[in-house]
Description:
The chain is mainly α. The chain has helices at 2-6, 9-16, 18-37, 45-85. The radius of gyration is 23 Å and the shape is elongated.
Amino acid sequence: MLSQMKSVPPVQWAMRHPRLAAWIVLSVGMVALLAIEARDVGLLPGQWLALMTAAVLVAGACVWIISWEDEDEVSDTEVGDAATVAPSEPKSGE
């Protein structure tokens, strides 16, 4: 099942660009919820545009903040690999 999913072009694109894909999916969800919840409020078109733009920007900020944790995990792994691979030098007194 998973191997079949990997052959679908949108899934391939999402695997190559995970942050951008997450931003798009989160933006679509936030704008959909905004449209559902504020449909009876009586907003003007400019107000709708401003709210939807803000929702897309907030979604981008969320994905960006979440990506900080990914960068920390990568740098921790690199430091851990370097510490285990690098041999310790013998002391000159021994």
